[in-house]
Inverse folding.
């Protein structure tokens, strides 16, 4: 199992980024996928999830209306479109298949700063 996150960077408040997570080593289309983030000095927290069946998405309240999770099963990739970014969105972002096991990628750093 391999999860490779990308797309992070430095962005000003109010800006946008699109994160990608390329998955391999398992049947991607069968698994719910989630994005998590870990800010400096804090625990890793769940941000968004998308089901394997009908693409139903769920979000933590702090990102609702700003972030959109999506998936492309043909590309084994899950995305996180992040708009209206705030300082408090600064973190390392990770993807995970929660029902597959404790597999994590290296994460991608998102820094929101003026």
């Amino acid at each position: 199992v391999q999860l490779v996150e990308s797309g992070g960077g430095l962005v000003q408040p109010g800006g946008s980024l699109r994160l990608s997570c390329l998955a391999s080593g398992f049947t991607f289309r069968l698994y719910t996928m989630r994005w998590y983030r870990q800010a400096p000095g804090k625990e890793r927290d769940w941000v968004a999830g998308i089901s394997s069946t009908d693409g139903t998405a769920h979000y933590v309240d702090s990102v609702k209306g700003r972030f959109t999770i999506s998936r492309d099963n043909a590309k084994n990739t899950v995305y996180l479109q992040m708009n209206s970014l705030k300082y408090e969105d600064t973190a390392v972002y990770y993807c995970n298949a929660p029902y597959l096991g404790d597999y994590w990628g290296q994460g991608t750093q998102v820094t929101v700063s003026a």
